[in-house]
Amino acid sequence: MAVININRNQFEEMVHSGKTVLVEFSAPWCVYCRRLAPALESVAEEYKDTLVFTAVNIDDEPELAEAEAIEVVPTLLIYHSGQALGSIIAPESRAQLVAFIEETLQHQTQEATTVQHIYDMIVVGGGPGGYVAAIRVAQLGARVTLVEREHLGGTCLNIGCIPTKCLLHSAELVSQIKDQGAEIGVEADGVRVNFPQVIAHKNAISKQLTQGVAGLLKQNKVARVDGEASFTGPKTLSVKKSDGSVEEMTADAIIVATGSVPRTMPMIPGFEKTMSFTELLKEKKEVGDKVLFFGGGQSSCEAAYDLILQGKHPIIVEYAGDLVAAQATCLANTSFLRDAMEYHKVPTYLHSTITEIHDGGVTVKGQDGKTFEVACDNVINGIGFVPAPVGDKGRHVHRVGDCVAIGNLRTVIWRAWDV
């Protein structure tokens, strides 16, 4: 029985059809794939009433191969209802292939007939804390569902850590060529920044990493739900999915890995006029020429360097006595960021705070207690972050640091642990 190659759309339709499907990921240049073909066709004929056999050429579908975490060909996976039940790499014989199929089908049958599963866990939040926890728990044998409302990979992979490092890399290259090129014998005339390409590079890196995370989740049989979760009871969540539907989900244990949200200071008049880092770095809104950062931490200094790359003029107001003060003991690039702000002559007001935000500028209170005006086109909220809420904190969710039970950072989320 011939095994037919399919494309990505056909693959998605087939593995979600409710049938049990065996997919061979192969390549025409793979000698071992050609050797395996007769045995695979023979087994396909034998199991034609039980399995649907098909194949994917990784040269034609490289993104699909990457999403499924295929590193070696031939790799054979058995799917049911969108989940990978098992995999085998380069079976050495027909007997080994049959044994793999029998073992996988037997395990599937046992799962289908078991009324109560051994363990069940939901991870809320798909950032570096959540997806790593989900994968590890799944590797230990639990059935795991991960709920993410927006970006797999979280702020780190999509908006903050990784994208800002890409932008910093571009800025460093420009700075090195302009400021150090002649000194080390590299002369380049007319160095300019193609900012749309800078953003395209940043987006490509983020996409590559998030696709890798998606592949790892599939490889470890972690079910993924796109939606926003809130607690409705001791072991239950109400999940509003991206399509608008609502599903009640139950688990024996729940990991809360929802990350953080910007800290706010509503007591400052005009604070609602501030812009978040998400708006600045992701949505790339027009911010004007003079951009003031309320707070001089790592995020503010990195974003300020990004704006310098664009030819804009950042300003920083920081309550502490130095920039990147809170992260100084744990960040390798602290000195670089401080030196960069000093080198580019970024106006910096230390031991200062903002008392009012209004159109066209802010009122700053300095170390001596006197106030003065600083003109700017926009204000970025860089004063820090607080844990993102999930449900009703008073009844169901406590943050890390809320001492409510015995144990390291344990909370009262019914055997759940904050990440």
Topology summary:
Elements: E1 4-5, H1 8-15, E2 20-26, H2 31-46, E3 52-57, H3 62-67, E4 75-80, E5 83-89, H4 94-113, E6 120-124, H5 128-139, E7 143-148, H6 154-158, H7 161-184, H8 195-219, E8 223-233, E9 236-241, E10 246-250, E11 253-256, E12 260-262, H9 277-281, E13 290-294, H10 298-309, E14 313-317, H11 334-343, E15 348-349, E16 353-358, E17 361-365, E18 371-375, E19 378-381, E20 385-387, E21 417-418
Parallel strand pairs: 1-3, 2-3, 6-7, 6-11, 7-8, 11-21, 13-14, 13-19, 14-15
Antiparallel strand pairs: 2-4, 4-5, 8-9, 9-10, 12-20, 16-17, 17-18
Helix pairs in contact: 7-8, 7-10, 10-11
Summarize the structure.
The chain is an alpha/beta fold and 419 residues long. The protein contains eleven helices and 21 strands. Helix 7 (161-184) packs across helix 10 (298-309) and helix 10 crosses helix 11 (334-343).
Percentage of residues in strands: 25-35%
Provide the gyration radius in Å: 27 Å
Assembly category: single chain
Let me know the number of strands: 21
Number of helices: 11
Unreliable spans: 113-119, 392-419
What do these coordinates show?
Mean pLDDT is 83; it is low at 113-119 and 392-419. The strands form five sheets. The chain has a seven-stranded mixed sheet, covered by helices on one side. The protein has a five-stranded mixed sheet with strand order 1-3-2-4-5, with helices on both faces. A four-stranded parallel sheet has the order 15-14-13-19, with helices on one face. β9 and β10 (246-250) form a beta hairpin. By secondary structure, the chain is α/β, with parallel strands linked by helices. α7 crosses α8 and α7 packs across α10 (298-309). The longest helix has 25 residues, at 195-219. The protein is elongated and about 85 Å long. It has helices at residues 8-15, 31-46, 62-67, 94-113, 128-139, 154-158, 161-184, 195-219, 277-281, 298-309, 334-343; strands at residues 4-5, 20-26, 52-57, 75-80, 83-89, 120-124, 143-148, 223-233, 236-241, 246-250, 253-256, 260-262, 290-294, 313-317, 348-349, 353-358, 361-365, 371-375, 378-381, 385-387, 417-418. Helices cover 34% and strands 25% of the residues.
